[in-house]
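Proteins fold reproducibly. Next comes an illustrative record:
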Amino acid sequence: MTSPSSTPMRRRQRSTRLAVAVMLLVVAALATLGAAFSGSWLVATLAAGLAVVLGAAATRITHTELAVSRREAARDRVEQAQAYLELTVERTAEQASYVASVTARIEAHESTIGELERDLLEAQACLIDAHRQLLEEQLRADDAERATASLTSRLDDAEERAAHAIVRVAELEQELDVVTAEWQAAQVVYRKHA
């Protein structure tokens, strides 16, 4: 539906009634003019009476034409108001549909944002937990490295002591062999003398 400002002004055709009313007035004027030139009182009175009747008829025709044109204008305004009402109802429905659509989209976006925020919080909690576990593992690794270094040092000391002990055992075994040999020799000598 187009608005009234976009429609060109319609020029109404002249009504035949108005043309007839104008003709009646012209006839009345000619009759009055003719009576004035005739100089007769009776002709002037008849012309005046005819002019009044024709003027009244012209007025009645003009009034009827005015009433018809007003009814047509009122009908046009009613049709235009109906068209505006239909257009308003249509636009209101479109607006309500648009608002519902946008509201649904906003709610969907808000829901997605809420889910993403929850996921982000969970991810942050997991990240914090992973960092904590990493620190604990690093501390354990450091402790293990220190323990390994300590054990390695103790192992080196133990191996060194074991090496000394092996050397000492070998020396003692040699001394034992020497002492045993001396003892055996001493016993052989003792047996021979006894």
